[in-house]
Design goal:
Membrane topology: Single-pass membrane protein
Subcellular location: Cell inner membrane
Number of helices: 2
Number of strands: 6
Strand content: 25-35%
Keywords: Cell inner membrane, Cell membrane, Membrane, Protein transport, Transmembrane, Transmembrane helix, Transport
Strand order of the largest sheet: 1-4-5
CATH architecture: 2-Layer Sandwich
Mean pLDDT: 93
Largest sheet: 3 strands, antiparallel
Order of helices and strands: EHEEHEEE
Pfam families: TonB_C
CATH class: Alpha Beta
Shape: elongated
Number of domains: 1
Protein name: Energy transducer TonB
Low-confidence stretches: none
CATH topology: Fusion Protein Consisting Of Minor Coat Protein, Glycine Rich Linker, Tola, And A His Tag, Chain: A, Domain 2
Helix content: 10-25%
Length: 98
């Protein structure tokens, strides 16, 4: 009998599934907007274990606020053969002044 390959399902991160990060006051004053690309390590319980900026929005304040705010979210963890395990996922967050 041939061994089957394990079935990997990636973690699902959706910024709409949690509260929006607070827009930094300094960024509002300076009219800063941008898009930050994050890589997030999601634990088996769906919590963010680690996150890093892969592409900056151009504003350190916006990048930091995105990491801080989205790190509080709970996401759907990745699985191998139906068993949750920690895995990296990518998320793009758009900062836009209304």
């Amino acid at each position: 009998m041939k061994a089957s390959n394990p079935v990997h399902i990636a973690a699902q991160v959706d910024s709409n599934a949690c509260e929006k990060p607070d827009y930094p006051a300094s960024s509002i004053r300076n009219g800063e907007e941008g898009v930050v690309n994050l890589a997030m390590l999601i634990g088996p319980d769906g919590k963010v274990l680690e996150s890093k900026v892969e592409k900056s929005s151009g504003s350190r304040a916006l990048d930091k606020a995105a990491i801080q705010g989205l790190s509080l979210c709970k996401f759907k963890p990745g699985t191998v053969d139906g068993v949750p395990e920690k895995s990296w996922a990518k998320l793009q967050y758009v900062w836009h002044l209304n």
